[in-house]
Amino acid sequence: MKSLPPNRIYRGDCKLILKDLIQEGIKADLIYLDPPFNSNRVYNMIFNGGGLSAQQKAFHDMWNFTERARQLTFEFTKTIDQLNDIPTSFKEFIKAWVKILEAGSTEDRKLLNYLMYMTERLVLMKRFLAPRGTIMLHCDPTASHYIKVIMDGIFGNFINEIIWYYPNASRGKKMLAKSHDVILWYSNDKIFNFNRDDILVPYESGMTEWRYTKGGQAGKDMPKGKTPDDIIKIPSINPMSKERRGYETQKPQELLEFLVKMACPNNGLVVDPFCGCGTTIAAAIVLKRNWIGVDISGDAVNEICDRIGEMKDIHLRDNCKFNVIESNPETKREYNRLNPFEKQDWLIRKINGFPNPRKSGDSGVDGEKTIHLGGDQWGKMIFSVKTGKQSSPVLIRELRGTMAQEKAEMGGLILDVEPSKEMEEKARAAGILNYKLKTSSGIAEQSFERIQILTSQEIIDGKYFIHPPTLAQKKQEQRHSGNLL
Questions:
Q1: What percent of the chain is modeled with pLDDT above 70?
Q2: What would the pLDDT profile of 275-329 be if each residue is shown by its tens digit?
Q3: Per-residue pLDDT at 70
Q4: 298 and 320 housed in the same domain
């Protein structure tokens, strides 16, 4: 059985991170999530994160319903069709729902965007749950009916609709005061974790003389308490409370401690895919559960780190140890959160190169690739990464010198800023590498600039260096056709 992971905070989209965790073989005993659940909050969460990622741009197009938006919808329904672990009836329902909302108003398309966004992630959460694990999705009454339909289709086993009643809600003037949220509790199976003995509540006064009176139970000790009902009465956080972290939708830690205590076994794993200011993590630390938190916001990650640092109880120190892991950046702002060495390694891997493990004394080589030169000849392309504001024609001269020293046929320079015209001219002056390609009609020749320049933004956007086939590509082509010299 796989051992539990160390406590982790991921900065990134939970969709990508859940895929990685599933691939790693990790399973969650309890997933608690409090995602944005009305159109304005969804919009702010997806689009106000400091620049749009490729995925966020695609969702942004949904508002205008461009051809890209239609393609996104098509891809979503195609993905739903390919899922083997949800009922066919639910697939057909979702596809019909998508079709209706796609043809509707702007508000309908906002809802469609939200439903697609959540469905893709909830399907992954289903796969991420341990056999006895459960998921709790926190939402308000404006979205609970939509989400419940999706949860029914994906998870199937509905346990409870938990009502969090906060009696200190403001009083309504034109309607009744809104004083509760809904927490939808589901599992994949009829057998699931439920720590009843840990959450028993005392009987009301007047029960002290209680006795079993039937079945020969007279004289037995009175039970410790009764199972709570599905209405949890806990005040929301006072704006002046020391617990307040500046998040408008922050939930009281008392509420999260109750939920974690109830549904996660001792030494189990709690995961929050939208962890915000880290209330779920704080509850898991207090209750000595293992935990993983995910948030797309770097500010949220910083806030969580500060919050954990303020937990000074010596008994919690072991469970306060954690790692912060940056997900693959999709925007320049996300990229800028990496330190220089992290940037260097990520950029090299992104262009399918091999990073140099030596970070000092690397002779100017931050990474390399093996490239085919024709026939049975092989050479290499080396890469130099210059982060920050470094941009000078001197960098081209240095790279040419390193190429000569390393006997490299090609070189790639990666900058955080745009290269000057003089740099581009000096790169072109390094000459051309000619490469012969065997085709069915004879020999074709290709030419590649020996020195090329890309910016980190271009690499984030998916651009690559142009070069002959790599060793991996050549082997793959040989398996299929063997048509390269």
A1: 80
A2: 988 999 999 999 999 999 998 776 788 888 889 988 867 667 667 888 888 777 7
A3: 66
A4: yes
Q: What is the CATH number of the domain that holds 234?
A: 3.40.50.150
What would the two tokens of residue 233 be? Answer: 């009465």
User: Has residue 215 got a pLDDT over 60?
Assistant: no
Does 324 lie in the same domain as 266?
Answer: yes
- Which among 311, 335, 359 is the end of a domain? 335
Question: Could you list the residue range(s) of the whole structural domain that residue 124 is in?
Answer: 8-193+230-335
- Average of per-residue pLDDT values in the chain: 82
User: Cα dihedral sign for 9, 12, 15, 21?
Assistant: negative
Q: Is the pLDDT of residue 75 over 70?
A: yes
Q: pLDDT band at 3, cuts 50/70/90?
A: low
- Confidence class of residue 142 from pLDDT cuts 50, 70 and 90? confident
Upper half-sphere CA count for residue 469 (Cβ side, 13 Å): 20
